[in-house]
């Protein structure tokens, strides 16, 4: 069930991880190649946020569909050749909805052509008409079978039409629900499915508002709720608070308070745990249930079997019926594997409250997948020296810079540079490379054309 090229790419990825990251729970190199993102394809944004991870020159660059399509394809060529036949890739830069709808769709199609599962990153402040124009061709037929969007909503953002200057996270709840409703309508009217993620930057000003946000979002239509503790990265003019006044544990505790459950993030490690935490689960009504619990030894066995048997399988690109047939054949040949799966499923049902409750939730359509994630970026003043030393093959004597080097060595999220053939960690891209790149783009794509 695993493509031979994907297996080679995974093995290469595993070998490239630092020794300390090659732990039993590590996902990278066993089941997942990592995330990919575009850069320099549309730097401009029409919001003013504090913090902002784009360089100060980003908003002096014109959004140009031709440039976007060309740059995306060049980056995908490198990603496909170095990271294998499939991966998850983010169409990210400034604000993706500033792209013309046809250019937006074309960029997604390019990514799909290179085996990527694309996700558009947005502030979510666009109308249904724009969404429909992305998905439908000139004959109003779907040109994309499924779309994925990650929408950013939080009080650090300025410029949203319905709430230009939100004072509390609750001020944004209606905008969050309206965003998800557009995709419900899209599926109802055109049969196009979607995957939606909610992103929230966390600062001292909204840390204690996380529980209310989780409760508001849990049934809105998002399949992932992601939290990013603010970092000193990007445009320094927009740094407003003491971002280091709280810990990652405090953020995670607030998320757990909102969902009313422990979120077992140690069952799977994505790169370095100082960068990423993830808990995958399902909501049965108002009860969130983990699919794998790090306190349950039998679940760790399931994880290990998944890595061994399905790691690298491109399940999302296989038709459900065909995948079911392949899975059935595997389980018939491996009855012991089937027994492990049945026991795992029974544990999930038990956590959900028993079979009768699960059946009741299914009848009421109250079963929804919901993953929680936290991504902690590295401050620019540590990334710069860490990257310079890494390029020279040197380890820093400074504790903070050395920690940044360790995290960059295990980075999950990379961006492609076709001009050098390199894959660059996202924190390096934003802290070290973006300023010069955007200065070049400012000349290439000036706001006022000559």
Average pLDDT works out at: 94
Strand order of the largest sheet: 8-7-9-6-5-4-3-2-1-10-11
Q: How many helical elements?
A: 14
Percent of residues in β-strands: 15-25%
Helix-strand topology string: HEHEHEHEHEHEHEEHHHHEHHEEH
Ranges with pLDDT <50 over ≥5 residues? none
Structure in words:
It is a single chain. By secondary structure, the protein is of the alpha/beta class. It has two domains: 35-260 and 378-444, Alpha-Beta Barrel (TIM Barrel), CATH 3.20.20; 308-363, no CATH class. Helix content is 42%, strand content 15%. The protein is built from 14 helices and eleven strands. Strands 8-7-9-6-5-4-3-2-1-10-11 form an eleven-stranded mixed β-sheet. Helix 2 packs parallel to helix 3. The longest helix has 19 residues, at 65-83. It starts with a helix and ends in a 6-residue tail after the last helix. The mean pLDDT is 94.
Pick out its properties.
450 residues, alpha/beta, eleven-stranded mixed β-sheet, 42% helix
Describe the structure concisely.
With 450 residues, the protein is an alpha/beta fold. It has helices at residues 4-16, 65-83, 101-113, 128-135, 173-190, 210-217, 248-259, 297-310, 320-333, 335-352, 355-363, 380-391, 399-409, 426-444; strands at 35-37, 87-91, 116-122, 146-152, 193-202, 224-229, 276-284, 287-290, 367-375, 413-417, 422-425.
Compile the SSE list and pairings.
Blueprint: H1 4-16, E1 35-37, H2 65-83, E2 87-91, H3 101-113, E3 116-122, H4 128-135, E4 146-152, H5 173-190, E5 193-202, H6 210-217, E6 224-229, H7 248-259, E7 276-284, E8 287-290, H8 297-310, H9 320-333, H10 335-352, H11 355-363, E9 367-375, H12 380-391, H13 399-409, E10 413-417, E11 422-425, H14 426-444
Parallel strand pairs: 1-2, 1-10, 2-3, 3-4, 4-5, 5-6, 6-9
Antiparallel strand pairs: 7-8, 7-9, 10-11
Helix pairs in contact: 2-3, 3-4, 6-7, 8-10, 12-13, 12-14
């Amino acid at each position: 069930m695993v493509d031979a090229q994907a297996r080679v790419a995974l093995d290469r990825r595993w070998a490239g991880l630092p020794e300390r990251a090659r732990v039993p729970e590590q996902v990278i190199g066993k089941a997942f190649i990592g995330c990919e993102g575009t850069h320099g394809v549309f730097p401009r944004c029409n919001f003013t946020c504090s913090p902002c991870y784009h360089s100060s020159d980003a908003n002096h660059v014109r959004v140009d569909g031709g440039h976007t399509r060309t740059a995306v394809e060049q980056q995908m060529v490198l990603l496909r050749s170095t990271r294998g036949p499939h991966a998850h890739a983010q169409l990210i830069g400034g604000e993706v909805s500033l792209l013309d709808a046809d250019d937006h769709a074309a960029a997604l199609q390019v990514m799909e052509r290179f085996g990527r599962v694309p996700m558009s990153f947005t502030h979510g402040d666009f109308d249904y008409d724009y969404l429909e124009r992305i998905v439908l061709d000139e004959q109003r037929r779907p040109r994309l079978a499924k779309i994925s969007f990650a929408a950013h909503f939080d009080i650090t953002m300025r410029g949203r039409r319905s709430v230009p200057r939100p004072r509390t996270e609750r001020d944004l709840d209606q905008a969050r629900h309206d965003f998800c409703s557009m995709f419900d309508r899209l599926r109802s009217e055109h049969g196009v499915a979607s995957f939606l993620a909610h992103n929230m930057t966390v600062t001292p000003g909204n840390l204690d508002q996380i529980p209310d946000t989780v409760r508001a979002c849990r049934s809105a239509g998002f399949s992932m709720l992601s939290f990013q503790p603010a970092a000193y990265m990007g445009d320094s003019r927009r740094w407003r608070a003491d971002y280091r006044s709280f810990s990652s544990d405090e953020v995670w505790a607030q998320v757990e308070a909102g969902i009313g459950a422990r979120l077992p993030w140690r069952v799977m490690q994505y790169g370095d745990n100082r960068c990423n935490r993830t808990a995958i689960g399902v909501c049965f009504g108002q009860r969130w249930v983990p699919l794998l619990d790090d306190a349950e030894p039998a679940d760790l066995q399931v994880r290990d079997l998944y890595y061994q048997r399905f790691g690298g399988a491109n399940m999302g690109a296989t038709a459900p019926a065909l995948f079911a047939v392949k899975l059935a054949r595997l389980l018939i040949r491996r009855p012991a594997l089937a027994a492990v799966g049945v026991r795992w499923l029974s544990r999930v049902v038990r956590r959900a409250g028993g079979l009768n409750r699960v059946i009741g939730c299914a009848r009421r359509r109250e079963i929804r997948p919901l993953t929680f994630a936290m991504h902690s970026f590295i401050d620019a003043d540590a990334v710069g020296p860490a990257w310079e030393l890494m390029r020279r093959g040197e380890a820093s004597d400074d504790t903070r810079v050395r920690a940044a080097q360790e995290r960059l060595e295990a980075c999950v999220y990379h961006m492609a540079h076709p001009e050098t053939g390199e894959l660059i960690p996202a924190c390096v891209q934003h802290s070290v490379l973006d300023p010069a790149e955007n200065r070049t783009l400012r000349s290439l794509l000036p706001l006022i054309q000559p």
